[in-house]
């Protein structure tokens, strides 16, 4: 039993501007246990082969480590010890840009003759094909000389003059179909060719087939209203039909949710009013032994007389059953692709000197003078100190605007492509009243400071805070890392999500009569046409960007509305527009399930020191409410979760999805890039090697599964929105014997009533 995880080393020190390139380094380490997966096993020979070769011996605590330096590639870690079965684990070390990454490979070795592991398994690569049939109302192939069937999707953009054909070697994805012919109304629609995640052993490829039939209606001088149909079939990777629980629901309450237990489904003549209103439909497919499939979609609006067919042929992937790698099993990897947004700051700062703010150099400035001024300095511990120092005061005329420069960046996203981002920095005096920019000439210690007004942006810190920061690096001093897994302990950890990280210099600079304003496009994901204000928090950090908290009210504010994100700052520090968040591990001691097996093994007599026990268990990671209870949403994609979780907000749907993605990113960074996909655990068979007392009779086997729940909360204005994440914390198998050891109790190997040779 093994577990393989990669843990990035989160460093507290910020990356300096334009750092010298530092080569990334890698290592593989772990702990070897005996087959109870709790007792460390020393003296195990651990051999590394592949891109680099090395050998080690596990210590008294079962640990070992290989330093790979800068070597990446494919490796195999082999464990061997006399009296135990040998085992090998493949590891792929992937290159990173910089930093240090360790791959953890633990092993639980079973007693037995030392044997070489089974050869590495090979898996076939899936290929996809799509067959299309165009028929009339009687189900006969359309026989028209000018029949045109256009297919677009993936790398395909073709037109066929055939009523029946097949396309092979396709990519998975959505394909648009449109059929037209003289004498018939146009028939169009979409076909989903969904990706298969199931692994099929063997060499080469295997074909995943899907198909769709489009019916063309005879043209009429008085065409009826448009017809909308939704249909599909459920199969496995072998092409065999799979009877499933199929649920079709809709965001519009006027649509009656349909649920069938079958291998195919059909919803005909969908009300055109739902399409006109832009309703979203949700399809969920569940089948025992297979991964649950969810899909959300909208129907394209078409003209009267035409037919739209939404064909969703789902190929389910079997749940892969593997032995328990660790007392804390890994959840199912998140199949939802990351929106790998990267930001490159091309102009990371803006500078304005007091010389540029003199009246003769800036028409908006009324006067500039040197005075004694009381300013507020922020200490490293977050406390503030007011001090009277020499300062330069620039007075801006009423209703005049001083342009202080721009910060420019390029944002590249898998969802929205590449776009230019410009943060415009300015200072505007209100109507009828002058305003002042006050720049100190000395710091809190009385030392001279550069009087250049500087605003910097740090995109590297933004990425770390939003997508890489782990909860154990944020725990307060009163909390230990062990508290995070202790079921009895309730732990709350403050965190945040940021959209920009700015630092204003020199420290102590303040703006009176009006704030310094930074105006930017709304963050990616927020609807530019959303005219409902999205209140953001102005956050500040006192430890150079590691942790964040809501800034004092006198520091400023941030908000989004009408396509703009506006940040207003009254005095300088490190600050960021974003959202205050928190992660809470609730008391999970009562969150466990117990199963007793009183039939399979009851009355059996042990003649060996251990046996393999197989049972169906819940596995993976699921969504819950903030109390750990099951939630029931029509789907669990980010757009559906956003609509459901933020239903109390009046903002646009895409804005709600943006907010949920902030929670989603925090969940993934806190759980090794894994995220739930539904609110129901997968059911899988798992095998446990259980140590027992030889020559005793069993009463029953008790399997206990313990869960842990973390609640992720984002604060929007004065409202809190929370989602729970529940995962398996540990499993234990307990053997209950009929009685204690001793003669005359009928439990030893010589007891009357016959001997059962169990295992």
Please give the oligomerization state of what you see. Answer: single chain
By DSSP, the count of extended strands is 45
Give the distance, in angstroms, between the N- and C-terminal Cα atoms.
21 Å
**Rg, Cα atoms, Å:** 32 Å
Shape: globular
List the uncertain runs: 1-21, 320-337, 740-759
Mean pLDDT: 82
Helix content: under 10%
Structural class: mainly beta
How much of the sequence lies in strands comes to: over 45%
Number of H- or I-type helical stretches? 4
Instruction: Characterize the main sheet.
Output: 17 strands, antiparallel
Explain this structure to me?
The chain is mainly β. It is globular. β6 and β7 form a beta hairpin. α3 crosses α4. The strands form 8 sheets. It has a 17-stranded antiparallel sheet that branches. The chain has a 7-stranded mixed sheet with strand order 11-10-13-14-22-16-19, with no helix packed on it. Strands 1-8-2-5 form a 4-stranded mixed sheet, with no helix packed on it. About 35% of the residues are buried. The longest helix has 18 residues.
